[in-house]
Amino acid sequence: MVARLPRHRMIPRHYLGVPLREFGPYLRAPFTRADEPDRQLAEFEALWAERLPQQRVVPTPLGRHALWYFIDAAGLQPGDEVLVAAYNYYVVVRLLVQKGLVPVFVDVDPETSCMDPEDLARKIGPRSRMVLVTHMFGHPADLDAIEPLCREHELLLFEDCAHAIGTTIAGQQVGDRGDGALFSFGIWKIVGTFGGGMLALRPELHAKLAPAPHAGGRMQTISSIGSRAALAHLMRPGLYGWCVEPILQVAWFLAERGRTSLRDLIAPSKDNEQWRFDEHERSPYRPFMTAMLAAQLDRIDAQVEQRRAAVEGLEQRLASLPGVRSLNRDRHGHSNGAYLGLWVPNPEALADELANAGVGANPHEFFDCSRLAQFSEFAATCPQAAEVCDHVIRMPSYAALRPTDLDFITQVIAEHLATSAHGSAA
Ligand SMILES: *Cc1c(COP(=O)(O)O)cnc(C)c1O
Q: How far apart are CA 124 and CA 121, in angstroms?
């Protein structure tokens, strides 16, 4: 049995890596008047001009709003089919359904966890209008195969880049090739401003964009963004074990006894059948976010190298263990190391052991949406997505992970695999 880490060494599942001094623009925001919208928009656009040279960019309240607005700008109609990878964030699929669109689930490549172009080719039909491709975990999807299919069949291409700032194909930031792309600046993503997101899209579609003005006052900014700012800070290694981990313990204890409200607050379910998108539920994009973004984008290349080093460090340590293998991050480009997904026999059991040892990990970050009860109307069989859903666990992979952390995680995984193999042999 591996000893539990002392609190000051506990390992969160994610750490945004924004130092407290960079919280300044947020902390000052309630006291500054935001009255130069044109200059603020120009500053935001300038951040992306070199990264996404073919696109116009629009800041949005959250990443998901980008898809919502794009569907209108592109003129998609109820009943139109959207081809979407089955292994996905259910919120994305829910948005499509809420707009009256028909999700057609496409299987994934088990090596990358991204959409499989061969299955895509099989599923394109007369009602298909759009392909929604996700650079899942920050792994570049196979756009060299998917983009020509879209052109051939006159389908819109939309890239979900929620995990993929810093992910490149042939040296180009992903999100530039699609007709539109979604980016998220939530606290669980690679670049975070406590909320906020972005729609990138072709200039001709940008001209058709008419999002409704966003409601939401100063109090909403203070509470909805403030709670996320606090959590982003408390997830910091060193604080996490004292501040967040004990609350998680209580939350799971209660959830196991049927009282799930605390767990739903700090570790929301990734399959909530009741959830519906509400355009105005969260704070609008705020000008302070641009200053925070600028600081993080300045160091994104170094961050990506550190994340990749952490991911590679763990993979090397695990290489000799039977029963665990990693995904192929760079199969179609250069991954940003945003998320580390590992194939293991039993993700739930491993997550429990990691949690007992003081390491955060999520056995169900995403689901095979083609099997979820909430999408039963659109059910499909996607065997590879089902496998990824049942066997891939998301491990910590932030830039600040140290070699001793990686050693410890390796030890927990090794012992878990040894005891579970022993148990099943007996
Ligand atoms: C987080 C996420 C989104 C949406 O981002 P929000 O900013 O939370 O709206 C979309 N797709 C994927 C795959 C995500 O992980």
A: 6
pLDDT digits (tens, 9 = 90+) for 229-248: 999 999 999 999 999 999 98
Compute the distance from residue 313 Cα to the ligand 1 centre, in Å: 27
- Relative to the CA of 88, which ligand 1 atom is closest? 13
Gap between the Cα atoms of 109 and 222, Å rounded: 42
pLDDT at position 425 is 43
Distances (CA, A) of 364 to 11, 22, 318, 367, 406: 18, 31, 21, 7, 21
Task: Say if residues 37 and 392 touch (Cβ distance below 8 Å).
Answer: no
Q: How far is CA 376 from CA 167, 175, 183, in A?
A: 33, 30, 28
Quickly count: other Cβ atoms within 10 Å of residue 249's Cβ: 12
SS3 content of the chain, % helix, strand, coil (to 5): 45, 15, 40
Give the residue with greater pLDDT, 253 vs 401: 401
Q: Which of 323, 308, 276 is nearest to 417 (CA)?
A: 323
pTM: 0.96
Query: Which alpha helices (DSSP H) does 218-299 contain, by range?
Result: 218-220, 226-234, 240-243, 245-256, 261-266, 288-298
Indicate which residue's Cα is closest to atom 5 of ligand 1.
Answer: 63
Please give the average per-residue pLDDT across 404-410, as a whole number: 96
Say if CB 175 and CB 161 are below 8 A apart.
yes
Ligand 1 mutation target, pool 16, 60, 64, most atoms within 8 A of CB: 64
Ligand 1 surroundings by CB, under 6 angstroms: 62-64, 89, 92, 134, 160, 162-163, 184, 186, 197
Cα separation values, 387 from 88, 286, 391, 405, 421, Å: 13, 40, 6, 28, 20
Q: Is the confidence at residue 423, as pLDDT, over 70?
A: no
Classify burial at 201, counting beta carbons within 10 Å of its beta carbon; exposed 0-12, middle 13-18, buried 19 or more: buried
Distance of CA 204 to the CA centre of its chain: 28
Tell me which H or E stretch contains 180.
strand 180-184
What pLDDT digit, counting tens, does each position of 196-236 carry?
999 999 999 999 998 777 766 677 777 788 888 999 999 99
d(CA 354, CA 281): 34
